[in-house]
Amino acid sequence: MVVLLIGxxxxxxxxxIDKLNKNGHRVYLLTGQRDSRYSYKRVFEKYQFPYESESIxxxxxxxxPDVTVFMGAYDTNFDWEDKGRQESVRYAAGVMNILSAFSxxxxxxxxxxxxxxxxxxxxxxxxxxxxxxxxxxxxxxxLAQGEEICMNYYRTQNMDTRILRFDHLYWTPEKGxxxxxxxxxxxxxxxxxxxxxxxxxxxxxxxxxxDAVELSYRVICKEELKFPIYHISSxxxxxxxxxAEKICEEMGSGVEVVDNTVGMSNRLVLDCGRYKEEFSYExxxxxxxxxxxxxxxxxxxxxxxxxxxxxxxxxxxxxxxHTRRIxxxxxxxxxxxICFIPVYLLSAQAADSAFLARLDLFLLYVLLFAVVYGQxxxxxxxxxxxxxxxxxxxxxxxxxxxxxxxxxYVWMAQLFIVGLVVGYMxxxxxxxxxxxxxxxxxxxxxxxxxxxxxxxxxxxxHNFEAQIVxxxxxxxxxxxxxxxxxxxxxxxxxxxxxxxxxxxxxxVDVAVYTVANGDYARLFSATSPEARKLGNSIKYTDMEAMxxxxxERRVYINRDMADKMPMMASAVYSEDDMQLILxxxxxxxxxxxxxEANRLTIVGYLIQNAVVRANRYLEALHNQRYVxxxxxxxxxxxxxxxxxxxxxxxxxxxxxxxLEILAGTEDYESVGRSLGQAIRQSDYLGILRGGRLxxxxxxxxxxxxxxxxxxxxxxxxxxxxxxxxxx
Length: 727
Hints:
The chain contains 22 helices and 24 strands. Strand 22 and strand 23 form a beta hairpin. The chain has 727 residues and is an alpha/beta fold. The two termini are 54 Å apart. It is elongated, with a radius of gyration of 44 Å. Strands 3-2-1-4-5-6-11 form a 7-stranded parallel sheet, sandwiched between helices. About 1% of the residues have low confidence. The protein has 4 domains: 166 residues, Rossmann fold, CATH 3.40.50.720; 111 residues, no CATH class; 142 residues, Beta-Lactamase (2-Layer Sandwich), CATH 3.30.450; 97 residues, 2-Layer Sandwich (Alpha-Beta Plaits). Helix 1 packs across helix 6 and helix 17 packs antiparallel against helix 19.
């Protein structure tokens, strides 16, 4: 089964991809974004187009999926928190474009994922599938509009669009990703503030991701569905206070539950009665089993969910975050102060040593912090070094002498210049390193995309290699079938060209007309009575729409569904002369596409050589194999021709009548001259059975032959129909 998944990256999307891949389905993905950097699971092909793109219909035409799944309520391409109004408009437009493209394919099923958010009120009983929605908020309104669009297509267009509503779906989130499930909000509140507030009068049910994927997969795979809307719910009621206590128990000490029970009862539980009626139903992950991995994951990666700028925490958390930032900023200064003490003491000791007196420890100290921390710490350490240098000089000189010493200022300038230059170089190197890291990260993303594209190309390559021989539309198969014309005799090729064309185009109603002169074409062979509906002779130049395309060597497509015109037609040329017209009648509307037209063109070119060669051979029969001085075919040539017609008639490809001329003379020249004016260009005069003269009337039945017999008798020649002339 071919499945197209539509939606942004999420845990739910990856879970659906996993489920479908494990069960052997071919999965395509439409991301809804131009440059999606989300790491999706492996799919057969990934399309990165926004929902409003005109290419959506081309994607549907190319894939022709058996099932299309739109993530809807769980599509991460929409920012409902900050831009709800704008996103609701964009969402509705995207859903409409997807459904209109889906309706053009007219095959398969589309499943729309919705949620309990479309019900904004409180309900005493479980909410049935046919309960009217009551959305509150931009996201809920957008989801309800999406459901209504799906239902309109289901009712008015008879499209197989279905809706699955999930009841408070929850899962283990990815690091740093924010979710809207009650379970996630409570855990996050506990991590931020150490408290979980809950209203026990708020009652709902939740369903874990794995159970939701399993239950929805059964809907995806079933061939016939009874209802347009199904609810996916655990139907296991739980109060907010009870859920908070379960979460607190898993989080351990340091987290407490605060009972904020106020107001009237607020109950929202979806009823999945329809689902239970039609499918087997079981829940494998209850609240105790489902909550545990979510709590453990969020505790282990709490730093990714609680940022320094988080405003949701309490006063203690805010104080701690500010203190942590201040301490982090002061650490380099503290290190500089701590390191300055041993440097100052060593410098004082080195001053008394002749060997170490020339070693400038303060300069080394400034260089160390300039290399490690950059210009800012270089300035601070240089300032400390100057203070230490002056203090050490004041042990042997007065402060006034130190300040008046020219060497003091030269040393200070040297210290600042070296420190600032080294610090600047360190900052620049750090900046370049950061830029390179960003570039490497970007290139790694590009490499991952290239790997995905390569994997997709390899899969498609293997797939097409498998199809090249076996698929009915592959060029190998087309050539194999069309080359079968080579096995037929020259007189038979035109008959079996119709049969080959019917096989290659998967069409039971095919007709082949030969162009008799500039305006008329004669029916040569046809595969069914339907294909003969235009008659044995047509003035094709009066068929303006078809003739215009054939004259320009294009394939004619009957887009207006004209009753007396073929669905598709193509012409076979020999140099600049039209030789044949190929007509297809039994083509359904959905196959009247550019792809089918291209296939007909290819098939026409492949059979052109054999057909044109046979046509030239038949012309040679007219011009070179006559009885000398007459327009009568000799016995050998006429026998081959009559047998070809007989075999084609037995296969239902043509009709013909053989008339024996009872002239009683062998003056073929005079008889042929007289009768030649009374027959059509597509009929033949010839000799059979030891010198008897016959006329082969192509595409003629007994009723039509009566007029020819009458014309012959008016010319003074008796004739009769001979049905056993060719043995």
